[in-house]
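The instructor's notes for this session suggest beginning with a concrete chain rather than abstract definitions. Hand out the sequence below and ask the class to guess, before any prediction is shown, which regions might be ordered.
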Amino acid sequence: MSFSLERISQRYLTDSGEIVHAVEDTTIEVDTGQFVCVVGPSGCGKTTLLKILAGFLEPTGGVARANGVPIKGPSWERGVVFQAANLYPWLTARKNVELGLKFRGVAADIRASTAEACLDLVGLGGFEDKKPYELSGGMQQRTQIARVLANDPEIILMDEPFGALDALTRERLQMDLLKISRERRKTVFFITHSVEEAIILGDRVLVMSPRPGRVVLDEKVEISKKYGRLLDGKELRSTPEFTQLRDQISDTIYAGQASAD
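After discussion, reveal the predicted structure:
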């Protein structure tokens, strides 16, 4: 499923009566199966765009579309992975993963088998009956990803899902996510503060300016294509193309921050 943000603007009215321009005149088009990463300084509107795509927020200007149809509210076709795992502590991993299917009225036996398959997919086979407090932070995030995958959404929206994890767990989940997105041909919109993570995961990297947020760089990542195979994070970092792209993206972010100051 493709999606687009067409001349999106978002303004907020603060409690003091001040109008805050979060995003201004932003247009993004993403094709089916693309993995798009978004970076930029804090407060530049990255999460605002994600909320608009999720249907949690109606833009004050412009229109968001999924497969050409205006987005009017949340849908199982657009799954959201948040910064925190947001699991229900009284439910097992399996029951947490089943939740979206239960709300959609899917039969209990199908819910159970789907949840088990998705937990296996994210490397949590054997942990189906564990409660969230019995799982590590990385395992909780895997459970949240499994919960989204169980609904089989066409688009996966991810808001800094690995930001609070240790480096080793983060790298493992990056590789797992790449594998899943490619095997299932999911369209992914991924927000991160890490330029390196954006290059490792993304087919495209978008850089947003300081508030009011606009896309100031839209760069394709074609390093793996040049070398004829999918490179892991360590291999990517060792290429001169990685260093060049990382510096280009970082310089764009820093230049925007400097001009804002």
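Then share the key points. The two ends are 39 Å apart (CA to CA). The mean pLDDT is 91.
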